[in-house]
Structure formats: structure tokens, C-alpha cells
Amino acid sequence: MNQKVLVTGGTGYIGSHTIIDLIENGYEVVCVDNGSNSDTSSLAAVKDITGIDVPYYHLDLCELDGVKRIFTEHPDIKGVIHFAALKAVGESVEQPIRYFRNNLDSLINILDVATQNHVEALIFSSSCTVYGDVTHSPVTEETPLQEAASPYGRTKQMGEQMITDSLKNSSVKSILLRYFNPAGAHASAKLGESPVNPAQNLVPVITETAIGKRKEMTVFGDDYPTRDGSAIRDYIHVVDLAHAHTLALRYIFEGKQQVSTDVFNVGIGNGLSVLEIIHAFESQTGEKLNYKVGPRRAGDIMAIYSDYSKAKNLLGWEPKLDVNDIMHSAWAWEKERTGRQIQ
Ligand code: UD1
Questions:
Q1: Domains of the chain: residue spans and CATH
Q2: Nearest CA to ligand 1 atom 10
Q3: Taking the model in full, what pTM does it have?
């Protein structure tokens, strides 16, 4: 029988791509989401792509009774992939208490219920933001964590610590995946990033500008000490990132993880600047982007990219897609979803 996995935040961008990867690798999925920044159209796309109607709970993980009900109705859940969280850096500076309450209460409830049931594996969405304002890249999992630049980043650091401490004497093993910058969409163009709230991340801002939803976009700073003055990040295709979750889960299920909690970077291992990303979009799609250069964005760091050799060596994970695949798929998805909105 297929092992059953609960995916929290499963209607969201990374969650929904991961559900597809899990189904394609023989897992049975249960999804929960509170719909705060996504809707169930992503599950309709999952059904379209995989043929599977994923059971869905619309509830807030901050309510313990709701989380317990999922496990009462699915006592055979063996793995939990915990995506559900608020994730806007700027918003977290404005509303720190909302971020702490949401991201930490929900995690406590997941830990509580996972340790009370027969869960073997917990995979946590962490972020390269835990490294803070690093002075040197690539960063490895051994790179010391700096002060978090935002309450959002702090919730990820605290989440990592809470999981590590809570599971030390339990039978649940966990993996913390530190994502770099996820971008791109499913190759079918049926699924991609579709936030309910206005997009703030670079790639959706680019595609929304190119299609005319925004008149222009701003490059936040061209005075960084980088090769072209704009900030450098590690852009990882969401389909590659999704597969890292399946491999992490399998690693624990197959009994390969010796330690209680382990941590892995998931990036492409290569830094690209904002201007290089813009030029990649223009050259891959033939579209001309209306952009201007503005001041730096508060809280941004100059450069960060990953060393992912630990994930390669232990999980057998490697990125297969590159920045051109990101641009093609993100643009195909933008045209598809804008077409739907116009109808
Ligand atoms: C940050 C976090 C990441 C988190 C993500 C969630 C860090 C290092 N990274 O990513 O962990 O998961 O937020 O939202 O803290 N940019 C522009 N113009 C725009 C939008 C972005 O120039 O309109 C630039 C930014 O200044 C940045 C780069 O593009 O240099 C990427 O920005 P973004 O996509 O927002 O991601 P991060 O801030 O790197």
C-alpha cells in the first residue's frame, strides 16, 4: 500500500508542485491549507495532471482540534511535509506578532500531533534566509547563522530549533530543507505561482510586468558591490525543489537517516543577479521588459547562493533545470493564468 503523507500549505506554490511529485512517486497525499494566499484551483490542476483527487481540509493549523481531526480521520499518515506559513519578508516587519503567532503556533500543533501519532518523517520548509546577511557564498549547512534580517526569517530559525529540540527524544525524524529562491512553473503550464496577494518575488513581478499587469518594475539597487551592481540570488526551479521533498521523505522512510534532525540546502549552486535574470527573461521569451533602477529594498542582502553537495551526496538530489527553464515555464504559466482571468 502507498504510504500516506500530509502536505500542509498544499494549495500553495511549492506545496502543490510537491503534491504532484509525491503522487508521481507513488505516495498517497492528504492536503490541508487555510487558503490565506492560495485557492483550490491548484488542486484542480493536480487532478488534471495526475488524475488524482487529493483529499483536502480547509482549516487553520493554529487550531489544534482541526489538526487532530485530520489524524483521527487518517490515522495512517506516515509523513508530514509542513509548508504552511506566512512568507512575505516586508509584511513580517510590519506585523511581527501575526508572523510569530501563525508560523510558530501552527508548527507547535504539527509537532504535537505528529509525535502523538505514528508519523515517521517530518519535512520542514526552511529558507536560506536563516543564514542572514552572509559575507561569503556559497553557503554550506555548516555556515554559521547570522541574526535574522526579518521576523519572517526569525520564524524559520526558531522553527528549525523547535523541531530539533522537540523531536530529539521521539521516534519522528525530520529534515529541514533550506530553500534558496524558488521560481518557474510546471511544464504543463497548468500550475504555477498564483498568489492571492500581490506578487513581490522577482520572477512573478517580471512576468506580470511583461504581460501588462504592471506598467513597469523596479530593480531594487544597482549599487551593490557585485559584477553588475544588482543583488545576487540562487534561483531554483520549483519542480526540482518539489522533488527534493520526495527524496527527503524517502531517505527517512528507508531508514537511512541516522540523526534525529538533519538539514539540507536546496539551491542550484550558482548566483545570478537581478539584471541577469531580467536579461534571461528577455532573451528566452523575446519580450522587452519595462524596468527602471530604484533604491535598494529594505532588508535585502547583497548576495547569497548555495553549496548543495550535502543534498547531492546523501539524498541523491540534483537540480535538472536551469534559469532558461524557469523563464520559459514562468512565462507560459503567466500567459495561461492571465488568459483565464480575462475570460
Ligand atoms: C526572500 C528570502 C527567502 C524567502 C522569500 C520569500 C532572503 C535571502 N531570501 O527572498 O528566503 O523565501 O523572500 O518571499 O532573505 N527584486 C527586484 N525587484 C522586484 C522584486 C525583487 O529587484 O520587484 C530583487 C530583490 O531586491 C532581490 C531579488 O530580486 O535582490 C530577489 O527578490 P525576491 O524574489 O523578493 O526574493 P528574496 O528577497 O531573495
A1: 4-183+236-266 (3.40.50.720)
A2: 181
A3: 0.97
